[in-house]
Amino acid sequence: MKTSMLKLSRVLLLLALLSGTSGAVHAKNPGWRLIFNNDMTNILVTNSPYNPSDGKQVDTSEDFSTLGVLTEEMLRESVRETAVPGVDAISLTPGLCWVPWWPSKIYSMAEHAAWFEKRYGIKATTPFNDYLLNGGDIIGPFVDECHKRGVAAVISYRLNDAHWVEYFEKVDDPKYSHTVTRFYAENPDLRIGTQADADPKTGLLPHNKRVHDWSRPEARQYKFSLMQEMCELYDIDGLELDLMRFASLFKDDFPMDQRSRIMTEFVAQVRAMLDRTQRGEKRRWLGVRIPIMQEKLAGLGVDIPAFSKAGVDYFNVSVHYETSQQGDLAQIKRMAGDTPVYGELTHASQTWALRTRYDGQGFRRSTREMLSTTAHLFYARGADGLSLFNYVYYREFGNQKILRGPFNEPDFDLLTKLADRDWVTRQPQLYFLRTRDQLFEKAGDKKQYQLDMAPGAGADKPGTLRIQVLRPNERSLGEGQTSEGVSPKPADWKVTVNGRELKATDTPQPVYPYPTPIKAGFGLASQYLAFELPPGTLREGNNVVEVQGLDKNPWHLRWIEAALAPFES
Asked: pTM of the full predicted structure?
């Protein structure tokens, strides 16, 4: 009987997909210019005007006891500061999406706290848990404040977040109650990996193995039931399925065609649920956060045309954490047709490892020119709008502040400008590629890179191409630290762009080619080499940059950037 009902439900679902009638007929375009994501935890882990650190030097990623007390006013203020002109929707991520951050009847915070203490002998005390246990509400005030500010209230729900679940057997800190749930701990067979996949040194599963296997209906149903309950409780304007936190849903050997079938059916199920729970005639928008690289879509079961037909109203294309200008947004937009596509920007354009613990990376912070040029490129490739992820993390957070800072207040006024397509086109253009510290081990080593560009009027003006090269002992230097290493010499490097060899310039280089208050992650001026970009060297679309090292000593290439002359405002 159960099998027959399951088959019948699938037939009905497929009929709905084929007919394209997953609910009432509405325009499938929210018309938003910018979507701003608020990950909620930033409210306590960053130093902000409504949560000042008072000079405390604490590692907020490791010690939740230092975070203070969460209040509803802090939540509302996080909405107010971001609801600037141009931002049409704010998406809130309710934690790591394992523990319901609302008064759930499926798995209440009281039930979770009692189970956690019984199993691990530790009280489930975090500022977020305590806020909810004391009767606080997170989603209600968020929705209310968004609507007061005239912006859409969206919930971005992480389907398979890997943060901290690796400690489910070794819980020795209450902060793990942020993510380790009864369902996760008591269903080890639902995980993608087994203990055989664990790191032999730590005994912990890697990110892509510790999350749930979405070929298992139980895993999908757990997350769906929570989303459905939340949608029944609150007057949200939209729901975004975040496939990027983390981008792992299936075992490696699971067939690709079955992945797309499962995920398309899940999208249709969510679409039907949103239609069923919507308030009045107001459509609830459905988005999905997916990779910007086309080659990664199939592994997650993402079929762009099928998703659109199943009821997706927008695609949010992402690199996961960093701002990147290289991707397949244009191809994704062609597959999406009339369904809007948003290109994602973040606070960092490059990261590198400083330590193995959480928040252990160094950052190259995204500047105005990086963000405006990336926005211009996204628009040129067909983006209907932009999304902002982790934007508030310009603020001070975590430890090792000398290595990871300095920090800044986020430039919220810039968001209004980024929503203006004409404005971003007129700005100084900076095209860049983070090369992940690629090693040039010996003389003659040569590597080729491809940079997508839309230089427009800037192509007929001279520019500068710069490369940042480091000695191995310089890879973990922080802002203001010096190095005793030998500086790179222009004569030891040969650079060509689109087959044209560039002439090196002896002009002393700053760490960044434009004035900026942002200083984090640029390294040392002595690490940069500059080459002249004659007018006409760059072209619309793909540009090929070839770098050859002529020095016998090893170097790491970290960054390539092409700075075009400023346009007239």
From this structure: 0.93
